[in-house]
Amino acid sequence: MPLREAILAACTRRLRPVLMTSLTTMVGLLPLALGLGEGGEVQAPLARTVIGGLTSSAFITLLFIPSLYLLFERRREKRHRVAKA
User: Cβ(56)–Cβ(48) under 8 Å?
Assistant: First the structure.
């Protein structure tokens, strides 16, 4: 299987589990992030930080790392072709 197809297959296979776990945690932290309830204003910054971290980690996991992997593989192939010539 070509690398690009393998990356696309892996991303589509992992999309649902990564999004479901991230979104359920974010929804669970939403009342805390809004500062609802007693003492919520103290813990709201922590909840917002966790939500931001989950958002960025989902983005990095699903888009950035596979793209970076493909980029490095293309560079390696290019160097390999130049070395053969």
Answer: no
Q: Which residues contact 41 (CB under 8 A, 6 or more apart)?
A: 35
Query: What's CA 12's distance to the chain center, in Å?
Result: 13
Rounded to an integer, what distance in angstroms lies between the CA atom of residue 53 and that of residue 36? 21
| Domain range list for the chain | 3-84
What's the CA gap between 57 and 18, in Å, rounded?
10
What is the percent of the chain where pLDDT is above 90? 62
pTM of the model: 0.77
**Distance separating alpha carbons of residues 80 and 75, to the nearest angstrom:** 8
